[in-house]
Amino acid sequence: MMPDNAALLLIDLQNDFCPDGSLGVAEGDRVIPIANKLIPYFKKIIATQDWHPKNHMSFISLWPVHCVQNTVGAELHSKLNISHITKIFKKGIDQNIDSYSAFYDNEHLKSTGLTNWLREKNISILYVMGLATDYCVKFSCLDAIADGFSVYLIEDGCRGVNVEKNDVENALQEMKNKGVKFIHSKALQ
């Protein structure tokens, strides 16, 4: 069992980010069994959901329509053990600004409330995994570090989009440079 001040943060383990989804990440569904194996080791498990209105600005040119509120695509993956999830934070709900991070929108104008919630629960260590390494995982880890949390990236529990050739590699290096520590899921079991 992990210490009381540690939490597992599951980033966007949603249908639309898995291979058959509208913004499918290659092998995205392969992280679900890893999450399920780790969940019993944590007392606090947080999940995020991309939760866009139908007319979200990112659909215009950035990304295909994905994770629209109250659709099957926006639901957490059906094989994810959600029974022990302590709290779900929805992001990307403002139609005029995107929100990759679990903590803030992309302009850092609005908070999701995650930082305050973690502090209220006396959480200071985050173990992070999910989709996608080079976007929502990266920005969540960087914001967590900036907000003073110790962050461990569960490297085998992530998959990336790699829009450009080295996006995942560059994201991993940026996270490492900012103080994110890397760990394999087996080290937590």
CATH superfamily: Isochorismatase-like
Largest sheet: 6 strands, parallel
End-to-end Cα distance: 8 Å
The total domain count is: 1
CATH topology: Rossmann fold
Question: Uncertain spans, ≥5 residues at pLDDT below 50?
Answer: none
Biggest sheet: strands side by side, in what order?
A: 3-2-1-4-5-6
Topology order in helix (H) and strand (E) letters: EHEHEHEHEHE
Helix % is 10-25%
| Overall morphology | globular
Structural class: alpha/beta
Q: What is the number of E strands?
A: 6
CATH class equals Alpha Beta
Average pLDDT, to the nearest integer?
Answer: 95
User: Strand share of the residues?
Assistant: 15-25%
How many helices?
A: 5
Radius of gyration: 15 Å
| CATH architecture annotation | 3-Layer(aba) Sandwich
Characterise this structure.
- The chain is an alpha/beta fold and 189 residues long.
- The protein has one domain: Isochorismatase-like (Rossmann fold), CATH 3.40.50.
- The chain has 5 helices and 6 strands, in the order βαβαβαβαβαβ.
- The chain has helices at 32-38, 58-61, 114-120, 133-146, 167-178; strands at residues 6-11, 45-50, 87-91, 125-131, 150-159, 181-183.
- It has a 6-stranded parallel beta sheet with strand order 3-2-1-4-5-6, with helices on both faces.
- β5 (150-159), α5 (167-178) and β6 form a beta-alpha-beta unit.
- α4 runs parallel beside α5.
- It is globular.
- 45% of the residues are buried.
- The model has no long low-confidence stretch (mean pLDDT 95).
